[in-house]
Amino acid sequence: MATQPIVLNDKTLHPPVGYGTYKVGFVPASASSAAAGNAQPEGAVSAADCVQQALEVGYRFLDCAQFYGNECEVGRAIAASGIPRADLYLASKVWTTTIFEGPEAVQRQIEKTLSDLGTDYLDLYCIHWPVPGKHVAAYLQLEKAKAAGLIRSVGVSNYAVEDYQELMASASVKPVINQIEINPFLYRKRTISFFEQEGVVLQSYRALRDGKAFSDPIVLKVASKHAKSAAQVLGRWCVQQGFIYIPKSVKPDRMRENMQVFDFSLDEEDMSMLNSLTTPAALETFRQLYIKCVLRDTPNAGKVELVREQLTID
How does DSSP classify residue 148? Predict the structure, then answer.
């Protein structure tokens, strides 16, 4: 099946599949992981090596972020690959701490990311979380960076309907992307429908749920039917819904497997079963994560009273 790029609302082209660099060679200190820290585990493969392998396998869209703490290593892999810049799609995101500090800090981070990745422009740059009282000013700085040619497209991540509505009351450039967690176990139909109607394409992170859904009976039933892996079924569900799919692995064989989602289709029965896996408990878990993360790592961390009360979670 064709792997045609997706046309964004600013008429730029976005690859349908990318390589996620979160926790690749580095685990951020505030990550939800027992192994969190500034160093990779002994014997672990470096981020540069992982990204170089991903590029060799065929990935051309790299999903990066300030928070991931490895952009310098990603830049080393890009330089070593010899792949022309025009053949790559490089995306990054600015973290809550910098958003909280204000527009000048955001601009400095954009320039640092450009330097770390070894490029003079980014294909996409996003606000990582809608920090209350701060995210709009940060986004307006992205608009300025776009006008200056440092960013080709601007986007957001983890935005609820209400965050987007607040943003668009001040923004002059519509985001091309909203990167949110999407998989059959967190399929927020009302939110997804809203952004699709707005012409904002959805990027899916945790499309594979960090492997936690690979033993789900319904996923395994569909996988057996098509002689595919659980990961390939989840990835196929994602691209078949029209979402940009960003799998992550540090193993070359899994990198290849995760990409192989365009040689089969899920039928109506498959999609219906997978579409019904989101529970009220999963939506409530999302709500709690949102409340925590919009202020994560900032001086206001834990001040729940600062987080919006009206929130579309489904």
Answer: T
Packed helices 47-57 and 252-259: angle between N→C axes, nearest 10 degrees: 40
Per DSSP, helices labelled H in 227-279 are: 230-240, 252-259, 268-275
**Cα torsion 6, 78, 258, 190: sign:** negative
* CA angle, residues 184, 188, 190, in degrees to nearest 5: 140
> For the chain, first and last CA: distance in Å?
31
Token pair 């500034």 in the structure block, residue: 38
Which token pair is 37? 């820290």
Return phi, psi of residue 66, to 5°. -55, -45
Q: Can you give the pLDDT of all 314 residues of the chain as single tens digits?
A: 347 999 999 999 999 999 999 999 899 988 864 344 455 554 578 999 999 999 999 999 999 999 999 999 999 999 999 999 999 999 999 999 999 999 999 999 999 999 999 999 999 999 999 999 999 999 999 999 999 999 999 999 999 999 999 999 999 999 999 999 999 999 999 999 999 999 999 999 999 998 889 999 999 999 999 999 999 999 999 999 999 999 999 999 999 999 999 999 999 999 999 999 999 999 999 999 999 999 999 999 999 999 999 999 99
Q: Which residues carry out catalysis?
A: 68
Q: Are 245 and 238 in contact (CB under 8 A)?
A: yes
Residues 186, 285: Cα–Cα separation, whole Å = 10
Please tell me the pTM assigned to this model. 0.95
Distance CA 87, CA 67 (A): 25
CA distance 20 to 238: 15
Contact 184, 234 (CB under 8 A): yes
92: Cα separation from own chain's centroid: 9
Question: Tokens 């409530």 identify what position?
Answer: 284
